[in-house]
């Protein structure tokens, strides 16, 4: 019933964190530059900011690839998973998927940050089909990582203002207070879709960044095979009948199909008591 969990020795999380610390990366970008020296200010469009983080990450990932004997293959299309693939060669059966995900902070009335939320990719395409909207067959990926960025929007930043290159310091950066983490996707996944009308996996919602850094979502204790089985079978948005829409319902569904889920239920119950 469950897919076998694959293992590999390369520690991508440590490699990424070490490289970011060594390079002392500044993730802030304030403008786009034209060949004639004009620069154009950026607004706070989340897609554009996400693309900025992806571009800066590219150099980090390329250095990691070069230093560890990997090929780094970026996705050719925005709609094809993942953003980057690390592999020894195209025949490698233990490829590493890396997706760049971003979200901005929203705040409660008391000024405290609300819970963070990411969408973690489709559960209705390559996880089921194996080859749909994915760079290489799903079964060839041994690990799936998310490099997550959390930032605060700068409402004072304006879009499309033109400056001269010598005026660059006058241009407001459209975001601030960037926090970065990298973790295996299943460990930060939640049990609900990212939004009500899409077929994207939603992240585990938390207001504690450290829980994302450490990967403390429910599947971190239930395991990768349960994560894959849960989301492979999760009902599509327009499904007429839905076998389950939560982990508790999933356990019941598994038991109806003859599987003993007592251990998984015990583990999940303990996890809920601590979160």
What does it look like?
31% of the residues lie in helices and 23% in strands. The chain is globular, with a radius of gyration of 20 Å. The N terminus is likely disordered. It has a five-stranded mixed beta sheet. By secondary structure, the chain is of the alpha+beta class. 30% of the residues are buried. It has nine helices and eleven strands. It starts with 11 loop residues before the first helix and ends with a helix.
List keywords for this structure.
disordered N terminus; 23% strand; globular; 275 residues
Task: Put the structure in a nutshell.
The protein is of the alpha+beta class. Helices cover 31% and strands 23% of the residues.
**How can the largest sheet be summarized?**
5 strands, mixed
- Looking at how many chains there are and whether they match, the oligomeric state comes to single chain
Say how many strands there are: 11
Beginning-to-end CA distance, first to last residue:
28 Å
Helix content: 25-40%
**Residue ranges: pLDDT <50 for 5 or more in a row?**
3-7
Broad shape:
globular
| Strand order in the largest sheet | 3-4-5-7-9
Query: Strand fraction band?
Result: 15-25%
Main structural class? alpha+beta
Mean pLDDT: 92
Q: What is the overall number of helices?
A: 9
The Rg value, from CA coordinates, equals 20 Å
Would you list the SSEs in sequence order as H and E?
Answer: HEEHEEEEHEEEHEEHHHHH
